[in-house]
Amino acid sequence: MATSKAVDVRAKDIEKLEEMLARLPKGKNWAGGEELIQYQGFWLPKEMAKGVMLIHGHLKPRPTDVILSTYPKCGTTWLKALAFAIINRSSHHDFQNHPLLTSNPHDLLLPLIERYINSVDIETLPSPRVCPSHLALSLFPNSMAAASSPCRFVYICRNPKDTFVSMWHFMNKLRRLKQVPPLSLEDALDSFSKGVSFCGPYWDHVLGYWKASLESPNNVLFLKYEDLKREPSVYVRKLAEFLDLPFSEEEENEGIVEKIVNLCSFENLSNLYVNKNNNINIKAAGVNTSHFFRKGQVGDWINHLSPEMANAMDQITQEKFRGTGLNFDSFPHYS
Ligand code: PAP
């Protein structure tokens, strides 16, 4: 829990930060609240920018820290569920009576570190600390993000068109909760394409982790939503190995990998009472549990984007990712 000393220091820091943040460029907040600010190249709500500064000032990285990092709507909920099930499988091995059957994955892990650090003394947490984050890698202190860092990052990304469509739906749900008129698909696409989206630009966010994963694969595990959908067991094993918790032969024989895959699948989680009930609020984000589950498909963008819109997005993606070795299957196609 927070110590009063830590809170005092933060209160002083925050006054100074407020003044500095007020001078930064502002951009559209799709959720309809206070505008985002452009902080070190990324568009963040003010509270998250403050969180970044507090991470720099107060977080002492530990070799055992694991950051579960995502660009929003790329598979955060899924990654949290999988990581929780993998890490806690010795204490939660009964898959008929598992915390994920009665709690939303967001409620089983810490809130986003950039929000959490604002109110709680993170140094009092026991190791290993598993911290979710939506921050770009470059926003973390060098002591955490550099190739020589002992910290590990697990990053999941998703093709930009599905990410965009998922974010547009989600933000309009938030607007409805606040009784703000919906954001049109066209306006959202214009904003996304210019990089002005929650934690965006999307492409810069993804590339930061991609490049780091090539330079230091032991520090950064780079996963794609589409790969996980296609071969979940393969990537659950990879994730467990990366976390230094590989499945034993005995576990393999017992089918634990498949049990985790099934437990964390969209089909299973989205049909649970806890994730369907609109009245349950998620502590971390203040939104309904059901908002994190929509279709869970690859290629749903084709039901929303015109060929022109899809083409424009593809062109940006090709330009941004050219020469990096990163690409996404372009399935489905407009013929
Ligand atoms: P967040 O970053 O705000 O926490 P996140 O979980 O990344 O959200 O994104 C939600 C998307 O993941 C939704 O995609 P859709 O809008 O295209 O449907 C949601 O349906 C999908 N999703 C949630 N849980 C799972 C899961 N267990 N497996 C696959 N997809 C999932």
TrEMBL record:
Task: Identify a single GO molecular function assigned to this protein.
Answer: sulfotransferase activity
Domain of life assignment? Eukaryota
Domain spans labelled Sulfotransferase? 63-325
Keywords, comma-separated and alphabetical: Transferase
Q: Which Pfam families does the entry mention?
A: Sulfotransfer_1
User: What is the enzyme's main class?
Assistant: transferase
EC number(s) recorded for this UniProt protein: 2.8.2.-
Entry keyword annotation includes Cell inner membrane: no
Q: Which family does it belong to?
A: Belongs to the sulfotransferase 1 family.
Q: Which PANTHER family match?
A: SULFOTRANSFERASE SULT
Name of the protein:
Sulfotransferase
